[in-house]
Design a protein that fits this description.
elongated; mainly alpha; about 140 residues; 6 helices
Length: about 140
């Protein structure tokens, strides 16, 4: 019966991770003009792809570390993972907004541009950097 319990725990953590990554997708979609599914899958926009990929990787890093660091019961671990995941999403959103405020032009417009732009790389690296800091803080 232990293996069934463990399998259900993996399923619960996986589902929570997917929900958090979906929330990250929705946040990036809200912060950028246009719809991400159109920008990425229909228009093949490299800037939107880079920023979304970095955001998804960042959320996954935070969720993975939260799962790794969670102790006690599965319920406690899921709660910690959810809280840390939301904190990571908030901080990555704030980094997106801060970069937008501190740099010339609108970052949302850069993400919409059809040619790969340096500002998209900065934003992508900021997402991963913030996620690394949150992940380190969790451990």
């Amino acid at each position: 019966m232990f293996i069934i319990y463990e399998a259900l725990a993996v399923l619960a953590y996986g589902a929570l991770g997917l929900v958090l990554m979906l929330a990250g997708y929705l946040l990036v979609d809200l912060l950028t003009p246009g719809r991400l599914h159109v920008l990425i899958w229909e228009q093949r926009n490299p800037n939107a792809t880079l920023v979304l990929a970095a955001n998804t990787l960042g959320v996954a890093m935070v969720v993975a570390m939260a799962i790794y660091a969670s102790g006690g019961t599965v319920a406690d671990g899921l709660l910690r993972t959810a809280v840390y995941g939301v904190v990571g999403l908030v901080l990555m959103t704030l980094s997106f907004v801060a970069i937008d405020l501190l740099t010339p032009g609108r970052l949302g417009d850069v993400v919409n541009h059809t040619e790969l732009r340096p500002a998209a790389w900065i934003n992508a690296i900021a997402h991963v950097s913030v996620a690394l800091v949150v992940a380190a803080a969790i451990s």
